[in-house]
Design a protein that fits this description.
globular; 2-enoyl-CoA Hydratase, Chain A, domain 1; 41% helix; lyase; alpha/beta; four-stranded mixed sheet; 11 helices; 2 domains; ClpP/crotonase-like_dom_sf; six-stranded mixed sheet; Lyase 2-enoyl-coa Hydratase, Chain  A, domain 2
Length: 268
């Protein structure tokens, strides 16, 4: 039975990590299933937004299943030059947590219910928006077990919140609660546990009502221009604007505004 589920409703693909008894910890087969679900959402033209969550109120995801990801017989050197899929079975399973290689420009929302730790937080940090229940907690405790965040957790955290707070979390392995996460900008919204998914779905649907090509271009520009000098970033934005200028959706948006009606976007 798959431990990662996908359900598509009204342009939103809801992906659920489903190992609640293990706090939604991820084995290699779970990571492969997650990648498959994300690829399905990426390649389905009806999907405009991805909503990622975990089953139950105890945990969003606590990262890799430490019992199932012990060091393999293969050396690091042997695995390093292998493909992602093959190397994952030879000890480099963190590669399967790297969402950037999927080139998924549709927005991803993480709905965090409970513990969001280690690789779980590294996955959430790669999402475009994070909303949380009031009982959520966040941390990168890898140093406590003799390791480090291996999927950009260090860099993503430093970019997402003030550096002093990020370094404290990284070096101590300490967790923070939902209110602190919102205060420092790690999450945008907090909801009661029973209301989390209702509000997360409402957010996803609100984004899905917008022009999908425009939303995806915003994400692509945000990623591609993150490290560019402002002059180059603005130039890249001009290209993005030009790509969208003559699309059916942009024309529809202006017609709908003039006619005082809701636009009907088709992703064209």
């Amino acid at each position: 039975m798959s431990t990662v589920h996908i359900a598509i409703t009204e342009h939103v693909a809801e992906i659920t990590l489903n190992r609640p008894d293990a706090l939604n910890a991820l084995r290699i087969e779970d990571l492969e299933a997650l990648q498959s679900c994300l690829i399905e959402a990426r390649d389905n033209p009806d999907v405009r937004v991805v909503l990622l969550t975990g089953t139950g109120n105890r945990a969003f995801c606590v990262g890799a299943d430490l019992k199932a990801t012990l060091p393999p017989p293969a050396s690091f050197a042997e695995a390093y030059l292998l493909s992602t899929d093959v190397s994952a079975h030879n000890g480099l399973y963190p590669r399967l947590m790297d969402l950037s290689r999927l080139k998924l420009w549709k927005p991803i929302i993480a709905a965090v219910n409970g513990h969001c730790l280690g690789g779980g937080l590294e996955i959430a940090l790669q999402c475009d928006l994070r909303v949380a229940s009031g009982t959520a907690s966040f941390g990168l405790p890898e140093v406590v077990v003799g390791s480090i965040p291996a999927v950009g957790g260090i860099q993503h955290l430093l970019r997402g919140i003030p550096s002093a707070i990020a370094m404290r979390m990284l070096m101590t392995g300490e967790r923070i609660g939902a209110e602190e996460a919102q205060r420092i900008g790690l999450v945008s919204d907090i909801h009661a546990p029973d209301d989390l998914m209702t509000n997360a779905r409402a957010l996803a649907n609100r984004i899905a009502r917008n022009a999908p090509l425009a939303v995806q271009m915003v994400k692509k520009l945000a990623v591609d221009s993150a490290n560019l000098p402002m002059r180059e970033a603005v130039s890249l934005s001009e290209i993005g604007w030009g790509v969208l200028r003559d699309t059916e959706d942009r024309i529809e948006g202006r017609k709908a505004f003039a006619e005082k009606r809701s636009p009907v976007y088709r992703g064209r």
